[in-house]
Amino acid sequence: MSKKESSTKGLGCLVLFAFPFAGVGVFMSYLIGAAFLDWSAMRSWEEVPAELVSVNLSESRDSDSDSAEAQATFRYQYLGRSFTGTRVSLHKGSDSVGGFQKDTYRELLSRRGSTFRCS
Question: Could you tell me the pTM of the whole model?
Fold first, then answer.
């Protein structure tokens, strides 16, 4: 085997090894970009009074970890129309890192049945 063939094979192995990492990088860039676009759009939303109708903490446990998701339903009016919302955070879904979801649930629970400002 010549030196040129050996370096070509080495380069091919390097590309195959790097491909999954590049794919994960592209996917994470997409997620971060989507969150940034959501945040940017939310900055222009007008705050309105909302009534917190229901609050729930959805928890799941498996052999590896515990995860939680704060869930809520709220009603509000904007420009004379009634709306119902369920988004409680910029990020959707549950997590198993830190206490963000449980802290959010406790904060929402303390406001249940009351009116608060939302945007």
Answer: 0.64
